[in-house]
Amino acid sequence: MNILITGGTGLIGRHFINAFQQPYQFTVLTRNSQKAAKILPQCVEFIEELPEQNTFEVIINLAGEPIVDKRWTEMQKEKICQSRWQITEQVIAMIKRAKFKPACLISGSAIGYYGETGKKLTGEEVQVSHEDFAHLLCKKWEDIAQEASEHCRVVLLRTGVVLANDGGALAKMRLPFYLALGGKLGHGQQYMSWIHIEDMIHAIQFCILTASINGAINCTSPQASTNAEFTKALGQQLHRPTWFSVPESMLNILMGQGAELLLTSQNIYPQKLLEQGFDFNHSNLKYALADLL
User: What is the mean pLDDT of residues 1-13?
Assistant: First the structure.
């Protein structure tokens, strides 16, 4: 199977490629082929612009500016949006003009689509009434991708916090926790919906192989945890105390509006994946962290 990936050097993309070099043939769209070649296996092909005609059976669209690496200024928010919307528009344009259509487009999104859910267990069919930045970002991203539904099956990955041992959230948390400076964020009772990187990439493969899956799917463990629970579990795994807490006011100063991502409570449930028979290998937080650290 010939697969095109945008965002192939990112956390999810590179893990997917490394895990499934067999039986798939990967082509990665990148701005810097030489840099990408140092990160990804030799069997990967690289292109720096999309071709006029599609030759791929599956397209996995993961490209986008990291969402929490920088303070959310108006300029940074625009960069976050356009880095996702523009490449998705380009992929859709390629699909529309191509004689050969892919069987499936799998396109990124995030659980930010749902906004604040509190303690309520939230599946894919919930109606979202508010319109904060994260929701508007994800909704337009998804709407653009859905334009391909006239030509192929479209799956939208509403992804939670991805836990991996070589990047993402854990990489940012590891040092302060090792220094015994780890602690809950705000009051700590906000729900945090996470997924182990292995389950994440296998969920993508499951979507490729399962023709009955389409539309939005929640890529999260069935067992979300509160921030306080996550903090305690991570501290125990690293054998470090978790006495500190970061006040909400401090997060707002450091991150601006981006603090919403850390303080919003999102108890997201992977209803569609479970209904379709997907098995999570890492649904328990304690054992997921033990596997990664």
Answer: 97
**Residue 185: predicted pLDDT:** 94
Strands (E) across the chain are located at: 2-6, 25-29, 45-47, 58-61, 104-110, 153-159, 161-163, 183-185, 191-192, 194-196, 215-219, 225-226, 244-246
pLDDT of 68: 83
Report helix, strand and coil shares of the chain as percent, to nearest 5.
45, 20, 40
pTM above 0.85, yes or no: yes
Rank 72-76, 215-219, 257-261 by mean pLDDT and report only the highest. 215-219
Of 188, 141, 105, 163, the closest CA to residue 281 belongs to 163
- CA nearest neighbour of 171 among 193, 197, 190: 197
Asked if CATH classification 3.40.50.2300 holds for the domain at 2-229+231-292, the reply, yes or no, is no
- Return the domain boundaries, the chain: 2-229+231-292
CB 3 within 8 A of CB 24: yes
CB of 291 closer than 8 Å to CB of 143 = no
Torsion of CA 30, 36, 40, 41, to 10 degrees: 100
Q: Sign (positive/negative) of CA torsion 36, 57, 123, 260? A: positive
- Other beta carbons within 10 Å of 41: 11
Longest dimension (CA), the chain: 60
pLDDT at 217: 98
Beta pairing class for 2-6 and 58-61? parallel
- Tokens describing residue 114: 């749902």
Model confidence band, residue 80 (pLDDT cutoffs 50, 70, 90) = very high
Q: HEC profile for 266-293? A: CCECCHHHHHCCCCCCCCCHHHHHHHHC
